[in-house]
UniProtKB/TrEMBL annotation:
The name this protein goes by in its record: Alpha/beta fold hydrolase
Residues of the AB hydrolase-1 domain: 22-256
Gene3D superfamilies assigned to the protein according to its UniProt record, in alphabetical order: alpha/beta hydrolase
Swiss-Prot/TrEMBL keywords: Hydrolase
Organism for this UniProt entry: Actinomadura fibrosa
GO terms for MF: hydrolase activity
InterPro entries tied to this protein: AB_hydrolase_1, AB_hydrolase_fold, Epox_hydrolase-like
Pfam families: Abhydrolase_6
Length: 291
């Protein structure tokens, strides 16, 4: 497995296919190979090259001690894009990966051609703040929940009722969650806690974006995803039914077609503009936030 060293950490990555590059940014505590179950094969069939990588904290990438800042993960992603000479590239992010993608689009528009932001948010509401605080207390207590209990809790938090009420489907998910274990990767859990309210800042995003909400998402519910779409100028918004926080795995065909249609649509717009002698405005200078 190849590695790239950026921002003081070593990141594992995989690159495959030919065409415009799409960098896929995974959420907290999930391995990059999760994208390979459904998304990367579909993107390559559609004529895109794909690049996936394990965020810091997820083996075999480095696992620095302590809590991570969102800015750390954004800088990691920017450095990987630069090291592999991918920019400007398309970004697809989910959950924490979507937060990384939208912050990168804001700070380094020169590296980003477009961004698909799934299960994202620009702030935490009261319930999500309470969830984060409770999770921090549980981790600090050192209590280890039994694997079966943890699997049931994960299923009810992450999956849609349509999946939970399907005996065959939920049984497979419960087995998977029990085998996979639980708990956020060391350091990653804190990355989104300091997000604050980014709605005003996101008005400065200048690249085409699509915000995708999963209708039954309890972690990043549609009203928070819609706030991101409202904040980013020209951002498209789509809500997919019968999806929980893992909608990209629950309803992969719908998610894949949504991503691909958006990427191809923007590619065609750029091509049409170039053919008419209309070129996009130069990317503004990177924001001065240390990234």
């Amino acid at each position: 497995m190849p590695f790239v060293v950026t921002n003081g950490v070593r990141l594992s990555y995989q690159r495959a296919g030919a065409g415009e590059p799409v960098v896929l940014v995974m959420g907290s505590s999930a391995a990059a190979r999760t994208w390979d179950v459904h998304q990367t094969p579909a993107l390559r069939r559609a004529g895109f090259a794909t690049v996936t990588f394990d965020n810091r904290g997820m083996p075999p990438s480095d696992r620095p001690e302590g809590d991570y800042r969102l800015a750390d993960l954004v800088a990691d992603t920017a450095g990987l894009i630069e090291a592999l000479e991918l920019g400007p590239c398309h970004l697809v992010g989910v959950s924490l990966g979507a937060l990384i993608a939208q912050e990168l689009a804001l700070a380094r528009p020169d590296l980003v051609r477009s961004a698909v932001l799934m299960a994202t948010r620009a702030r935490s509401d009261a319930l999500r703040r309470a969830q984060s605080a409770a999770d921090r207390e549980l981790r600090a207590s050192g209590v280890r929940l039994p694997p079966r209990y943890r699997a049931v809790t994960t299923a009810t938090e992450m999956l849609a009722p349509a999946t939970l009420n399907d005996d065959r489907a939920v049984s497979a998910w419960l087995e998977l969650f029990e085998l996979a274990g639980g708990g956020a990767a060391d350091g990653q859990a804190a990355a989104a806690d300091g997000l604050g309210d980014r709605r005003a800042a996101l008005r400065g995003v200048s690249v085409p974006c699509l915000a995708v909400a999963f209708a039954d998402d309890r972690i990043c519910p549609p009203h928070l995803v819609a706030e991101v779409a409202d904040a980013i100028p020209g951002c498209e918004f789509l809500e997919l039914p019968d999806c929980g926080h893992l909608g990209y795995l629950e309803r992969p065909e719908e998610v894949n077609s949504t991503i691909i249609d958006f990427l191809i649509g923007n590619r065609d717009k750029v091509a049409a503009g170039a053919g008419a002698g209309i070129l996009p405005d130069p990317a503004p200078a990177p924001a001065g936030n240390g990234i």
